[in-house]
Amino acid sequence: MAMYKTLLTDLTDNILTVTIHRPDKLNALNKDVIAELGEVVTEIYDNKEIRSAIITGSGQRAFVAGADISEFMGLSREEGQALSAKGSDIFFRIASSPKPIAAAINGFALGGGCELAMACHFRLCVTTAKFGQPEVNLGLIPGYGGTARTTRRVGKGMAMYLCLTGEIIDAREALRIGLVQRVVPAAELMNEARRIATTIASKAPLAIAACKRTINNGAHLSIDDALELEALEFGTLVDTEDIKEGTRAFLEKRKPVWKGK
């Protein structure tokens, strides 16, 4: 694994843990973090040893407390658009990764931190976590996909409420509206994230990737088109070595050995 200035990485048992490490800034996203997240996402795509990944924050206070707003000062319109586009592109690559990426949210997930969490495929958080899109308090809107993903995660009405009020919500409310999938005590966060990642990593990799594609792409289609997409992906999988191995292992009452072929 590469060495990074703002990220800590650990690859154990085919699970890559990525820790955003700016504890003195509550892990705020600056240009270095964004650039290095782009590099580590490329590693996730390309490294065959990585079956799944977890993104978390350093320390006990924050996952990512937002963007580093000091970098916004004095930007031109063109520079602002380029900054937003770069972050959005990297977060889109996270969302589109064929390998599952979980967010283990250990504290504040505000602004860009909430956007990063929403780009991940599922989210676990500690009981003390806080979420919000407070950009309107700075005279801005979310710039890394917050308006689009909040709408898709929690619905248009709740997205309007969160983005227009800038209100910060707690873990219980985040779970109620579907922003996160699990809330656990702080001491259990990483163990639970690894347990889920290990479970997913034990499944057929082609099936995992196809399931992700079908859910991601089908969410924006009509039900008829989504069902057609599902049938196409299903048909592709039935002609793979993995399904033959999976069915043999089931009949022989043993664990399958996946080849991703």
How do the strands and helices of this protein lay out in sequence?
Blueprint: E1 7-12, E2 15-20, H1 31-46, E3 52-57, E4 62-64, H2 77-96, E5 101-105, E6 108-110, H3 112-119, E7 122-126, E8 130-132, H4 146-154, H5 156-165, E9 169-170, H6 171-177, E10 182-184, H7 189-201, H8 205-218, H9 223-237, H10 241-251
Parallel strand pairs: 2-3, 3-5, 4-6, 5-7, 6-8, 7-10
Antiparallel strand pairs: 1-2, 8-9
Helix pairs in contact: 1-2, 2-3, 3-4, 4-5, 8-9
Structural features:
16% strand, 47% helix, 261 residues, six-stranded mixed beta sheet
What does it look like?
The protein is of the alpha/beta class and 261 residues long. The protein is 47% helix and 16% strand. It has ten helices and ten strands. The strands form two sheets. The protein has a six-stranded mixed beta sheet with strand order 1-2-3-5-7-10, with helices on both faces. Strands 4-6-8-9 form a four-stranded mixed beta sheet. Strand 1 and strand 2 form a beta hairpin. Helix 1 runs parallel beside helix 2, helix 2 packs parallel to helix 3 (112-119) and helix 3 packs across helix 4 (146-154).
Describe the biggest sheet?
6 strands, mixed
Structural class determined from secondary elements: alpha/beta
**What is the distance, rounded to the nearest whole angstrom, between the alpha carbons of the first and last residues?**
25 Å
Strand order within the widest sheet?
1-2-3-5-7-10
Beta-strand segment tally: 10
Shape: globular
Rounded radius of gyration (Å):
19 Å
Quote the average pLDDT: 93
Low-confidence region ranges:
none
Helix count equals 10
Helix content: 40-55%
Order of helix and strand elements from N to C terminus:
EEHEEHEEHEEHHEHEHHHH
Instruction: Please state roughly what percent of the residues sit in beta strands, choosing from under 5%, 5-15%, 15-25%, 25-35%, 35-45% or over 45%.
Output: 15-25%
